[in-house]
Amino acid sequence: MACLPRPGSKKRGESGAPLRAAASALQIPSVQAAPRHIAPEQPLIVPESVRVTDDSVFTAADWSNVLKGYSSQYVEHDFWVDESMIEGTIPEDLEGTLLRNGPGLFEIGGIPVSQPFDGDGMVSSWAIKDGRCFYRNRYVRTDAFMAEQEAGRMLFKGAFSRGDPAGGGFFNPFNLEIKQIANTNVLHWAGRTFALHERDLPWELDSSLHTVGRTDLDGTVGAVGKPNFGSHFRVFVEDDGSKRLVGTSFDEDLRQGKLTFFEYNEQMELLYRTTAELPGAGFGFFHDIAMTENYYIALENPISMDFSTLLLRYMTGRACLAECLKYDPSKRTKIHLIPRPGRSGALKQVALECSPFFCFHHVNASEDSAGSVNLDLIAMHGGVDFSMNFSNLSHEFFAKPPWRTALTRLNLSPATAKVRTSILAERQSLEMPCVAPSLVGRPHQHAYFQSSRVAQASNWGAPQDILKVSMPPGEVAGEPEMQRWSPGQDSFCQEPIFVPRPQSSAEDDGWLLAPVFRAATSTTDLAILDAQDLRKGPLATIRLPHHIPIGLHGSFTQAYLGPQPGTEVQPRQHDIRQGVSRQGQPLYSS
């Protein structure tokens, strides 16, 4: 593993003066408001003081542009990216494959899904080698996807479906199973590729993204409770350079939750399976995980079941399952530290509490010399509202506290069970974080996000920009440094992925790969940015001739999953409306 400098040291592209000059050019404040510490019992409200990046607000026209990104992509592609589609130069030493997953189909049989997260999963890949790129995309052929394509109509209930999506006269409210959609993340490990969704087992794909089938990971997952494997995972690099894959399975009832951690080596052999019982956590909404050298980390959100909605509206088909979950500010947010097996530095399992907030995603976690754990995450201190869907969302959503995010650091003491909460950045609304992969579970200085372009106290917006936040780990003192790249008012960046440069020695020496949806042309680009200096703009932009719907998560593998450069491959297009098939299955024509 490359030797990294001590976090906190200055590196190329981080001096304060160039940052302030760039900030001025972008019309954003050159000084970030100082981090704020939250007293244990103090609820956070987004401040009313106006700290704006510019005079803009997120408008109805902006929201209309967002919605263009949630139009179905019916065509599956395989093709070499022509030189005419590349602006700039792909770095010669960038080699591997970017894999992305997200909903790709937003209607079935002409009937729209209620919420984009219910869309069937479509995986895309950019295989990059020797300055060339091979692109392909493919729908995950889950059993549910195949059955609905054959029937030409909805058959299965999603998390945001109301009543019987098949339109039948009988609705069984006690059936809480939801549709297989495999639309949240994608992982390549031990030579195998998996499409992930947290309420299902993984769906294995081959190197061409054809669906192999549903898998329990060689029998390691299916025997634990309700078989599922979470959509978020962590890869931890040990001191000897070997890697560990950590994933989870969650099983719940009305009283408690059980969170099982699976730790695999690089050959996909299960090393450890650890189950933590979490009393009262049945509705904790454990979406993401973090880890350190000694701990697995799970955050229990302050969510309660609204039994009134469940009995009066869900049971009668007038509310979806998600609408029965309510953010409960009377509860505390809990952080569970679960000792990793085979480690000597962890104390016993402990749950720490702090003022309520909701969190989907963690940035990273690490331990310090005193035994404290620092957890950086994306917090919604104003709560969350699960009733949002296509029918009731508008640009006015971005003027309300729920869903507005802030980069937040928790300093956790396992010995005393005390939590110190600090807000690092709250001007821009940030999401989809990443750090250098070699520093997962270890102290980091640089983190990368998609962020809103609009950043007023009373108005924010959908993710459009890429933001780099630089701050030493540990106790918060001073102000973070920021760099921002904006692709334009009608463009929307998605989750950035950090790829280290081969033989790099600096933490931020590498590239950021980020898809960008262009509303003006309804196409998608892949931007390749210098992670040390976002101000330079993309080193290369791969401009696809079609759009990829705004997606969720992805990962980068050093494995090159494409034809060898120089190999002639006939471009392929297939419209799924003409029928879908998979190995061992008939062709379904709709």
UniProtKB/TrEMBL annotation:
PANTHER family attached to this UniProt entry: BETA-CAROTENE DIOXYGENASE, CAROTENOID OXYGENASE
Cofactors required: Fe(2+)
Pfam families tied to this protein: RPE65 (PF03055)
InterPro entries, per the entry: Carotenoid_Oase
Keyword Plastid: no
Positions with a binding annotation for Fe cation: H232, H287, H361, H553
GO biological process, alphabetically ordered: carotene catabolic process
Compositional bias (Polar residues): 580-590
Protein name as it appears in the record: Carotenoid oxygenase
Cofactor binding note: Binds 1 Fe(2+) ion per subunit.
